[in-house]
């Protein structure tokens, strides 16, 4: 049953982002990356060497510490994450182009930068891994009796994908979650994003002391560092999100975070132990 639901979700996600994959093969030949700056979160067709170096280093370290299976799964999870940002940016650009054709000549209002577009592009990165994670868990369930090694591989990939994206959805700057929270908070009270990060960092710090967990202590320190790095809210030229959009974005963010925490729970608990 899980496998069928996961396939339906994957089909729906591919349909929703179909415009983001239409030119991918041509761009993939040149190397594709995405920009996390505040100028529009666009794509580019030049090799993004920092991302490639980071992916390679993370794979080697993870594989050396936790084994080849988890290392390869981490690499695939990172690739899906980057692909999500790329597809999201292209879909957003297509939507802007279509809207521009409906505007009177000389008034390209849709080209105005907006927090809604930025949230969509940022959120698509971690969101794209949700369907593959569920498909992997569903397939592992079906194969557990017939082919245990394949089932174990799929199970490992699903757990790594859940853990990887749950980390990136934490409300800590400059992670995707921290940027999403900042964009949502700007429509209500900009300082809320830093307060949320500091509050979670404090909770993680207390848990680290109580449980004696080095991992939780590192996460707490990362959250505090991110809040300091983010700095106080500044005036932005982008159009803020509407309150209705903020509510929808909050539901999507929390749902994705809870799904990934559930999907990666067994690996997260192992890392915290």
Protein described:
- The protein has 13 helices and 2 strands.
- With 273 residues, the chain is mainly alpha-helical.
- 74% of the residues lie in helices and 1% in strands.
- A hairpin with an 8-residue loop joins β1 and β2 (43-44).
- It has a domain at 2-168.
- It starts with a helix and ends with a helix.
- A two-stranded antiparallel sheet has the order 1-2.
- α6 packs parallel to α12 (243-263) and α9 packs antiparallel against α12 (243-263).
- Keywords: Membrane, Transmembrane, Transmembrane helix.
Defining key terms:
two-stranded antiparallel ribbon, 13 helices, 74% helix, 1% strand, 273 residues
Radius of gyration: 19 Å
Helical content (DSSP H or I, runs of 4+): over 70%
The end-to-end span amounts to 32 Å
Q: Largest beta sheet: what is the strand line-up?
A: 1-2
* Count of distinct strands: 2
Strand content: under 5%
Which runs of at least 5 residues are low in confidence (pLDDT < 50)? 24-47
Shape category:
globular
- Helices and strands, in N-to-C order? HHHEEHHHHHHHHHH
Average pLDDT works out at 79
Specify the biggest β-sheet: 2 strands, antiparallel
Oligomer: single chain
Instruction: Note the total helix count.
Output: 13
The chain-level structural class is mainly alpha
Protein name: Peptidase M50
Transmembrane segments: 52-80, 118-140, 152-175, 195-228, 248-269
Organism: Pacificitalea manganoxidans
Keywords: Membrane, Transmembrane, Transmembrane helix
């Amino acid at each position: 049953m899980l496998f069928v639901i996961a396939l339906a979700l994957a089909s729906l996600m591919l349909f929703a982002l179909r415009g983001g994959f239409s030119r991918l093969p041509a761009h993939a030949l040149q190397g594709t990356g995405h920009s996390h700056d505040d100028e529009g979160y666009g794509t580019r067709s030049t090799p993004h060497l920092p991302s490639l170096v980071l992916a390679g280093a993370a794979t080697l370290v993870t594989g050396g510490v936790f084994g080849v299976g988890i290392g390869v799964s981490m690499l695939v999870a990172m690739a899906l994450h980057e692909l999500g940002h790329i597809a999201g940016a292209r879909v957003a650009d297509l939507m802007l182009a279509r809207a521009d054709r409906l505007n009177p000549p000389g008034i390209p209002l849709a080209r105005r930068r907006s927090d809604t577009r930025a949230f969509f592009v940022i959120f698509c990165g971690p969101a794209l891994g949700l369907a593959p994670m569920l498909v992997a868990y569903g397939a592992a369930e079906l194969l557990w009796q017939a082919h245990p090694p394949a089932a174990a591989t799929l199970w490992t990939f699903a757990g790594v994908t859940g853990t990887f994206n749950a980390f990136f959805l934490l409300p800590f700057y400059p992670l995707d979650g921290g940027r999403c929270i900042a964009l949502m908070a700007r429509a209500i009270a900009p300082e809320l994003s830093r307060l949320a990060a500091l509050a979670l960092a404090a909770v993680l710090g207390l848990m680290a002391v109580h449980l004696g967990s080095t991992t939780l202590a590192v996460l707490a320190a990362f959250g505090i560092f991110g809040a300091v790095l983010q700095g106080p809210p500044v005036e932005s030229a982008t159009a803020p999100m509407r309150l209705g959009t903020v509510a929808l974005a909050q539901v999507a963010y929390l749902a994705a975070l809870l799904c990934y925490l559930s999907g990666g729970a067994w690996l997260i608990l192992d890392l915290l132990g």
